[in-house]
Each structure stands twice: as C-alpha cells, then as structure tokens.
Amino acid sequence: MGRAVRRVSCVRTTPEKRMAHHLNYRENAAQARRDADTATLANVRERCLRAEAAWLDMAEREERVAAARAIREAPRVIELI
Predict the structure, then answer these.
(1) Each residue of 25-63: pLDDT tens digit?
(2) How far apart, in whole angstroms, are the C-alpha atoms of residue 72 and residue 81?
C-alpha cells in the first residue's frame, strides 16, 4: 500500500532539556549538524542545516544578552558591597 516514511528529527529533546533550553543551544546545533551529516535526502539535510544555523544564532544572541546583563548589573553589585 504505502511506504513507511521515517521522519528525521533535527533535535531530540527531553522535558528537562526543554526547560533549560537556553543552556544547550550549541548542543542542539551540534545534534542538528550530525543529523544533517547522516541525512540521505537533500531536503532533510537542508532543513537540519537551517536548524543548526538557527541554534547557533540563538546561542550567540544569548551570549550577547548575558554579557550585556553582566555589564549593566555590575554597578549594582558594587553598590551592594
């Protein structure tokens, strides 16, 4: 009748990982790259590469935000001391 299609997930997550998603953007990007490297279909490979780029963008954004927050909050810490 129909052929079974196995969908490749670009990122496999658990509930714990979803709760701490901001901590593992780079891990998700690495998983997406591994999935892209093992994909046999071009569209799946392209989707996984787009996912990798998005995860890396989120990681870089999170790092910029954390650095800006640290700079912004540094005077407050000094005042508290």
Answers:
(1) 999 999 999 999 999 999 999 999 999 999 999 999 988
(2) 16
